[in-house]
Amino acid sequence: MIPRFRIEPLASDHNRSAFTCGTPALDRYLREQASQDVRRRAASCYVAVDNINGALAGYYTLSAACTPLNELPVQLTKGLARYPSVPVALLGRLAVDASFQGCGLGATLLADATLRALHSEIAVAALVVTAKDEQAEAFYRHHHFLNFGSLPHRLILPIAGYIPPTLR
């Protein structure tokens, strides 16, 4: 049986024009900015492609970042080196096209992002996201992200020992 979606790096042959997730800023980013960010190495962008019709069903971006050690929840600092900042992967954007929402693709994209960060050749201790609103924050909390730092909706997921939702 062929899986419904494949997740791959954004490429020039992906048709981004029909993507609509319900948040104009996320739609516009994919259509107008993502390729530039990839080319400039500001972010990596991965897309979920529908294996049935080739449509872009969702996407996410990852980039390198760091966060001050003293902003992390105490339970996350155990075992970390005592440097002033901790390397993390930043999940900058995550969106699912409206026609694919409700089928678990968001969780699949999040698991893929977390596994890529975990298996990266660049060491990171956690995945960090700033949720755009309360609904997005609830999604990340459902996937075990914790509050941290001084910014509202700022969440973190430690990735050492991470088990993706599909294998739990």
Summed over residues and divided by their number, the pLDDT gives a mean of 90
Strand order of the largest sheet: 1-2-3-4-5-7-6
Give the amount of beta strand, in percent.
25-35%
Proportion in helices: 25-40%
Counted beta strands:
7
Shape: globular
Distance between the termini: 21 Å
Q: Rounded to an integer, what's the Rg over CA atoms? A: 16 Å
Secondary-structure-derived class: alpha+beta
Order of helices and strands: EHEEHEHEHEE
pLDDT < 50 runs, ≥5 residues: none
Largest sheet: 7 strands, mixed
Contiguous helical run count: 4
Structure explained in plain terms:
With 168 residues, the chain is an alpha+beta fold. The chain has helices at residues 24-39, 74-77, 105-118, 134-142, and strands at 5-9, 44-50, 56-68, 85-96, 126-130, 146-147, 154-158. A hairpin with a 6-residue loop joins strand 6 and strand 7 (154-158). It is globular, with a radius of gyration of 16 Å. The two termini are 21 Å apart.
